[in-house]
Every structure is written in structure tokens, then in C-alpha cells.
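Researcher: I'd like a structural prediction for the single chain below. Treat it as a standalone chain; there are no partners to consider.
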Amino acid sequence: MTVSFKSNINGRATSNWIEDARQDIAYAWRGLRRSPGFTLGVVVVLALGLGANAALFSLLDRVFLATPTGVDAPQEIRRLYYVEPQAPFRAFGPANGVNEPVDYPEYLALRASAPANVEFATYNRPDSIDTRIDDTVVPAMVSYAAQSYFTTLRVRPARGRFFTSDEDRIEVVAPAAVISDAFWHRAFAADVGILGKQVHIGDQTYSIVGIAPRGFDGIDLDRVDMWLPLGALPPPPFWGVSRTMAGIIWPGENPIGKCILTFARTAPCTSVVGVVENVHTDAVIEPRPFMQLYLPIAQNRQLDSLRFGPRGIERVLLVRTRPGTEATVIKFALRISREQLPGANTLRANDLTQVLGPKLRPWRLGATLFGALGVLAAVVAVVGVYSVIAYATSQRAHEMSIRMALGARAQDILALVAGEGLRVLSLSIAIGVAAALAMQRFVASLLYGVSARDPLFLASAVAPFALMGFAAILTPALRAARSDPASALRAE
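Model: Treating it as a single chain, here is the predicted structure.
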């Protein structure tokens, strides 16, 4: 009897709950159909919120959470950073004293001094290099890696092998290459006989000895198509002259005509003929510029006797073209270069945007992400302002009707509603600007070429929101001003 009684109660409760839910959904659906504009706004806000959250989580998962495919025990792997003192005489260096890359001798020293249970590996960020496969030139993202790179990550080759210890010497040009699964499909049509095939980079030939597992194409955001052993890495020097160099060596003096000895004390004196503005050498933002010395190649044959890596010093030819003539000029420049430069069997032409692309990519990614979130926040805020003003106006419909019945004009009602809304909007903008100024020291490193306190920058951020907010306020204000007081009083 007790069980039957409880069963009936539970059955009626379940039935009532389902019926109540059905009625609520039907009522909500009828309300949405009666107000298509409101419905569209709700759908847009929900779509923006869900889409932005999905995109943000996907990015965070890709950058911070997702385990690189093929890497075993990623929780045991750490990227090593170090802090070095200010070194103005170095051509390359860290922006804030914190550096990520290490020189090869530093890597060898770390590896030699490491305990038995610690492994060290080194690699460089990939660079776009034209590779020649048979008679076809194929651009590839190439990274140079130590033999321990794959063993430290505990990655297993899908085909073939990785580098051996004999190929892990920088003084030896090891003719071995490992390619990614994606590059194998793209450049070789997934040829099963790929092992042993040759690729040409410059005047060096490499044999493909292995294929990385599918999905393993680097542990950074940059794609990697091919890995070469460290012996194939050409470490080019950087010569430059800058305002920083003049200020450090000859502070307060005119550097023009001063003497500089290069390469050796017995070398002839090189006179300074000009001072060049500081340039960025390795990063978009470099708060500590480095000394740079420019040497004319035609007057410094010492450069021709130096060789850095298997290809010697890499030289760059800069070509400025007129709009619409890029293809013709580049084709001509490449033909002349092949004729004039012996051994230059593989040449590539990149525009400046391609060269700067890897350096600007994180900034563009951050700008896109924060811009999208900013637009989403602005839309949600404007919808919120509209909803608050519209609700407050509807609650005061009876008051507005009495005011109009007693002689208030439409413009008086418009000024009343809009004035209250503008006060709320102004307070919101003031709070937002104050918060932005208070947080500027935390976001200053994320800004490029602009200050967080720049009035024009703040105005450009506030103006769109203010305009959208004003439109959101004006809509219910106009509706209230145009309402019929008799109809509103009858409805009450």
C-alpha cells in the first residue's frame, strides 16, 4: 500500500513537471514569435557567446593544454629559459634579459653536466626554405634538431629512423633528413618508397631517412615539414651599425670619421661614414637595442674568406618594385642571380610580409583574439543597456501616459528617457576608462607602437561603444515618445 501510494504521488509529480515545462516552452515560443527583433537579438548574443567561448577554448587547448601528437609523457618535459646580463655588443639577444635559445656549446655543456636521469635536446624554430625535389622546387618549413630531440620527446618514427649519434655533430654535414607525415603526402604523394630519396637545399643533398608520426609537426605553433641534423645548420653572422653603437663607443661625440678595427688588429682602419637608426634584429619589441656594424661587401674581402656552415655566409638581395611589376622584376632578379652567383642553384624570393610573418603572427593572433572578445563584450554590453532601458521604460508606461495627458510633449518624453540612459552609459564608460588606466601596466607589454594612456587610443576604443550605446538608448526612448497615452492608460 505504501509503495503504491508513493508511486502515484511520484507519477503525478512527474506528469505535472512535464506538463509545466511544456506549457512554459509553448508560452516562451509564442512570445518569441510575437517579438522577432528581440528573438533575433537573443539568438545573436547566444551565438556570439558560444562561438567566442568555443574559439577561445580551442586556441587555449592548442597552445597550453593539448598534448603534441606522438610525444610520450609530456608532463616530464620542460622548456629551458635563462636570464643573462645586458650585452650590448651581441648582435642577437633577449628583449628583457630572458632568453630561450642557447648556443650549441651551451647545449653541449648542459648535456654533459646533466644527471643520468635528465635528457637535453635542442632545435631551432622552423624557417621557410626552398627544397628541390627532382626538378621541382617545393617550399618547406625546415627545422634543425639534435639527435636527442626525438629521443627526449620519445617520438617513434612512422617509417625509417631518426638521426644517429654520428649525425649529431655540428662540424659534420650529415646528409640525412626526416620529414613530417603531412609533407610526405603533400610533396611525395605518400610514396611508400620514400626512404632514401634525395632532396636538395642549396648545394647540399640530403637523403630522407625517416618519417615522423602523423600529427607530429612541431611542438610550437609553427608547422615543421622537414628536420635536418645540426651539422646542416648554417649560423650566419650579423653585421650592423646603429645609433646605439655610436652612443656606447663615442658618447657625446660625432662618430663620423672615427676608426674601427674589424677582424684583426692588423687590419686596416675602417672609417665611420654614417650613423643608421636602430633596427629590430630578432623580435618585434626590443627595449634594449644592440650594437650593429654595417660593412660594404665590395670593400671587405675578409667576408669572402669566412665560411659559416656548409653554405658559407648567406647573402640577401633586396629588390624594391613598383605596384604591378612584382612578378616580372622577381623573375628577372632570379635569372640574373643564377647567372652571376655560381653554385646558387636554389634561390628563393620572399616579400617582406613573408619574412616578417613569423614574428608578427603572435601579435596578430593576440590582436584578433582580443579584438573578437572586445566586439563580443561590446555587443553584450549594448544589448544589456538596451534591455535595461527598455524594461525601465515599459515599467513607467503609465507614468509616461499621465505626463503626456497633462501636456508633456513627445520631445520631453524623449529627453527624459534618453537622459536617464545617457547617465547610465556615461557612468559605464567612466568606469571602463578608469579600469583600463588602472590595468595599463599589465597590458603594456601586449601593445605595439601605442601607449595604453594614449588619448587617441582610448578615444578610438570608447567611441564605437558610445555610439552603439546611444543607439541602444535611443530606440526605447523613441518608442516611448511615439506611444499613444490613451492606449497605454486603457491597458493599465
